[in-house]
Amino acid sequence: MAAGRGWKRFRPTVVSIAGSDSGGGAGIQADVRTLSAHGVWAATVVVAGTAQNTRGVRAVEPFSPRFVARQIDAVFPDLVPAAVKVGMLYDGARVRAVAAGLRRHRARNVVLDPVLAATAGSPLLTVSGLRALRKEILPLCAIVTPNRSEAAHLAGMRAAKSEADLAEAARRISELGAAAVLITGGDERGDRVRDLLWKDGTLRVFDYPRIATRATHGTGCILSSAIAANLALGFELEPAVARAIRYVRTALRRGVFPGGGAGAPGLFPTRSRTGTRPRPRPSRSSRFAPRRARKRGPGRGSSPSP
User: Fold this and answer.
1) 31-64: string of b/e by CB count within 10 Å (b at 16+)?
2) pTM score, whole prediction
3) Is 1 within the bounds of a domain?
């Protein structure tokens, strides 16, 4: 087997289609680190760039829809992604360009993190972009991972506060075409966090203690990328979600503060990196060979065979 094909077999590709965070805490940068930590090959399609640091977003500039499409057409035929993470898309024109590219290349395991605004509140998706997202991207998704505010916007609701509201929001989003919806609860207050997974008309709740930390910038990017990585590695949806939640919780405990503002989760390699290339199996004769030939001194027998 050719070396290139052998590497491909054991290291699937996940492509992140999102915006760049010049501060490094979220966006494409967080996606690449998360995907690499899971042992998959990280490819990127950059939709827009932000001028930001740990204190906030100062400016946003998009690439042209044509250039976004050209990136997609460069990545997909060659790397054949096993999963796709979609993040910040900026506006309707870029949303439509991405949706067309995903359809054109029959993208698999699409995970949407519907980025509507930065943590500090700066808008990152226009009103026309939200409309296009609901119409063009949601029907292509294996799972969508909004927080409660984003879920309400996607569902066309004023707010989604109670668990009944969240279930209704998830149902409405699934009716727009998403195969599953994970509404995250990390942005809410309280001693516990409840994430709600809606799939096939059934609601599953992930309930766990809140981790007290200010290193939360980019958690949505990390969660969705971890889900995409686990799907690419062959896990079914619910185990992929459960593994991603555990990964984010561990990263939160390792939070880092690289600047004078918000901190970010401390990313780390997963223990079972099933996407890494396995070692070649030794031949029968080499399995029983000594690891290192011992040097023999004078008078202690012949030298080892070469």
Assistant:
1) bbbbbbbbbbbbbbbbbbbbebbbeebeebebbe
2) 0.85
3) no
CATH at 228: 3.40.1190.20
83 touches 229 (CB < 8 A): yes
- End-to-end alpha carbon distance in the chain: 29
Assigned token pair, 141? 């998704």
Whether 133 maps to a domain, the answer reads yes
Cβ neighbour number for residue 107 with a 10 Å cutoff: 23
Q: What integer pLDDT is reported at residue 9 of this predicted model? A: 56
138: domain range?
Answer: 10-287
Strands (DSSP E) found in the chain: 13-21, 41-53, 56-62, 83-86, 110-112, 143-144, 180-183, 192-199, 202-209
Neighbour order of strands in the sheet with 143-144: 56-62, 41-53, 13-21, 83-86, 110-112, 143-144, 180-183, 192-199, 202-209
Which residues face 41 on adjacent strands?
13
Strand pairing partners for 48?
Answer: 19, 62
Residue 304 lies in a domain: no
- Tokens representing 282 are 């030794």
Position 3 in a domain? no
Contact by Cβ (8 Å): 192, 156: no
Q: Which tokens is 106 given? A: 């029959």
Nearest CA among 137, 53, 24 for reference residue 91: 137
Mean pLDDT by 10 residues, the chain (306 residues): 51 96 95 97 97 93 97 98 97 97 98 85 86 97 96 92 93 97 89 95 94 93 98 97 96 94 90 43 37 42 38
